[in-house]
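Why do we care about 3D structure at all? Because function follows from shape, and shape follows, mostly, from sequence. That is the central idea of this module. The next example makes it concrete: a single protein chain, its amino acid sequence, and then its structure expressed as C-alpha cells.
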Amino acid sequence: MSPKKAAPDEDVWWTGLKWVEAARMQLLRFEDATREWSAALVDAQQRGVLNDDSDQSRQWRASYDTDYGSYDPRRPLRVPTHALHIQLTVEADLLVVAVRNVIRAQARLPEDARTKIGGQDFLKDLRDLAEHFDEQEGRAATSLATNHAEVLPGTFAVSSKETWLGGIHGVPVSRLRAWLERVWSALTEHLEAAGRQVPRDLMASHVLGDDDLAWPPERLRYHWSIPQVEEQEWPRQELPEENAALLDERFLNLRSRDWMD
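And the structure:
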C-alpha cells in the first residue's frame, strides 16, 4: 500500500471554509432542537402538575381553556417525543463532527494564524465518541472521564441567553460561533494571499450575473434549510441598522462573560 499523500494546503483551507459554514448551519439546527426540547420538557412538567384533581389545578385548566384557543402555543402542548430527542442527539453529533473538521483544516495554517477555542480537547473527544459509537470504554471515553469529568456526553443545557454542548460545564454555542468567525477570517486571508478568490457574501447568487438582473426585485436567500413560510409572512424589509447593532452588542456582552475564551 502506497503511503498517504497530503493534500495541498490551499485545497485543505478551501475545504475548511466549507466546514466552517457547515458548522455554522449545524449550530443553528442544534440550538433550534435544544430549545424545542427544553420547551417540550417544560410543557410536559406543567401538564403533570395541572392534571391532578386539586381545586387549584382545575382552576388553572379552566383559565387556560377560557383564555387560549385550541393549539394556542401558550397552552402546554409540546410533547418531548422520542423522535425529537433522537433529532437533538444527532444534531449534536453532526455539530462535533463539523467542528472537528474545522480544527483539522486550520491545523494546516501557519502556527501563528491558528485560533484556539476553550474546550478544544474535549470537543475532539466528543466527536470521537460520536464517530466510534460501536466501541465501549475507548480512548475518548477514558479521556473525558479522566480529564473532563464535568463534561457529560449526550447532555445539553439551555438558558434564556445561551445553549451548551456537553452540559452546563461544556462548550457554550456563542463560544463556538465566535471561534468559527475567527477561523473563517484566517482561512480567507491565507487563501486570498495564495491567489484564491473567496466569496465575501455567502448570500450572493452562485449563478454569474444573477444578482445584476433587475426583475423581480424581491429575492429569497437561504442556506441550511429552505424556509417553509407562507407568502404573507415573508419579511418585507431589511432588519433596521439600529436593531442589528443591538444584536451585535448583545452577542459581544455574552462573549465577554466567557472566562475560558
